[in-house]
């Protein structure tokens, strides 16, 4: 009898180890506190190479900024009303023309009002304090931070969800249409700066098309790219802790004016957002 009990116990242990407990699933969503300000350190590095009439030119730049987000309240549908702005912003550039450092004073304190769903989707956008559109500040005229959009469903580690986005940016007398297919994958729980966070990775396919007018030329742009990213999200507090995205772009600018020109451009960019 004792031998039979031992065999039965051993069999039960084998069965338990053969069928591990189901992985925990997570409903990932944002949860901003009303009247509270959130500050993000933002860094963007950009290495660009372009060829003009057979001559290769390289441009390096680095943007360092502090982004402020403050929640005003909620809509009847449960979306958050956020006011975003820049507390500081400095751009350093290195080019064949020399090195420069510029403080973006015209952008500081300029407010953008966003209605954002609990999943991070921008529902409405309103520019409260506009500035003159330029290549440098075009994106900041729309939003200072682009939050990753979470899944509508509960997600287990190893599972993925896809977010398709189409965005337009007005700049340099034209409009650029950016299209992206973003696949997010929940890796699992991981410690990040003494916080228990969900680690999420992303892979994106990008396309760019648009037109602009510069220095007497009318340009048409077409290009593609790819991006990979890593996200740390505090799901208990509903906050993005850090997001790093590495991006590679290749596109052509076809210009017509005094003469027809084609400018091939490649870019390598890294965007980093870190909650202070």
Task: Write structural notes for this entry.
With 276 residues, the protein is mostly beta strands. The protein has one domain: Lipovitellin-phosvitin complex, beta-sheet shell regions (Roll). The chain is 6% helix and 62% strand. It has one helix at residues 2-18; strands spanning 37-52, 55-74, 80-95, 98-103, 112-116, 122-127, 160-171, 174-192, 195-214, 217-234, 239-256, 261-275.
Give the SSE map.
Layout: H1 2-18, E1 37-52, E2 55-74, E3 80-95, E4 98-103, E5 112-116, E6 122-127, E7 160-171, E8 174-192, E9 195-214, E10 217-234, E11 239-256, E12 261-275
Antiparallel strand pairs: 1-2, 1-12, 2-3, 3-4, 3-5, 5-6, 7-8, 8-9, 9-10, 10-11, 11-12
Give a short account of the largest sheet: 12 strands, antiparallel
Helix content: under 10%
The number of distinct helices, counting runs of at least 4 residues, comes to 1
- The beta-strand count equals 12
Oligomer: single chain
Stated plainly, the CATH topology is called Lipovitellin-phosvitin complex, beta-sheet shell regions
What fraction strand? over 45%
Calculate the mean pLDDT score and round it.
88
CATH classification class: Mainly Beta
What overall form do the CA principal axes indicate? globular
Low-confidence stretches: 12-21
Q: Please give the radius of gyration in angstroms.
A: 24 Å
The first-to-last residue Cα distance is 65 Å
Going by helix content, strand content and strand pairing, the class is mainly beta
Tally of separate domains: 1
Order of helices and strands: HEEEEEEEEEEEE
What is the CATH-assigned architecture?
A: Roll
